[in-house]
Write a structure and sequence with these properties.
It is a single chain. Helix 1 crosses helix 3. It contains nine helices and no strands. The protein is an all-alpha fold. The longest helix is centred in the first third of the chain and has 14 residues.
């Protein structure tokens, strides 16, 4: 798992907004959240560079929060374990297959951390199932 994946998009946006509004300095945020100044500066830069996309007329990303809500509903949790056990794989096996540690995969499977959409897609490809199946919308 990359460092950025452990933070939700909302968390990143909130920190970047705090920096933009001057609520806190980068040093204060860094100490509060035990993060590097560089990461916080990067998020602020991204927000400044890409924030306007939310307001574009043909914005395909405007409703991306719906996708996050779908993944956030955690309907995938029973499927993750079910598929892994059915294939007789360990959490380490699955983690290795999608390029993360066993510990990270364990946190996804147990619901301790939210599964990023990118990882959901990787897992669907790995298990050769549809996203609809993984999300519990289909039983095939």
């Amino acid at each position: 798992m990359t460092r950025d994946e452990k933070y939700t998009p909302k968390f990143k946006a909130d920190r970047a907004l705090e920096l933009l509004t001057g609520e806190k300095t980068i040093t204060e945020l860094s100490k509060t959240y035990h993060m590097s100044n560089r990461v916080l500066a990067k998020w602020k830069k991204w927000l400044l560079e890409r924030g306007s996309i939310v307001f574009e007329k043909s914005n395909q990303y405007r409703d991306i929060t719906n996708v996050n809500i779908e993944v956030g509903n955690r309907q995938y949790l029973p499927r993750l374990k079910e598929l892994r056990i059915k294939k007789r794989l360990s959490q380490k096996d699955v983690g290795n297959a999608i390029g993360i540690t066993q510990d990270s995969y364990s946190k996804y499977e147990s619901g301790l951390i939210e599964l990023p959409i990118r990882r959901l897609i990787q897992l669907c490809q790995f298990y050769k199932v549809s996203i609809d199946y993984m999300m519990g919308m289909k039983d095939e």
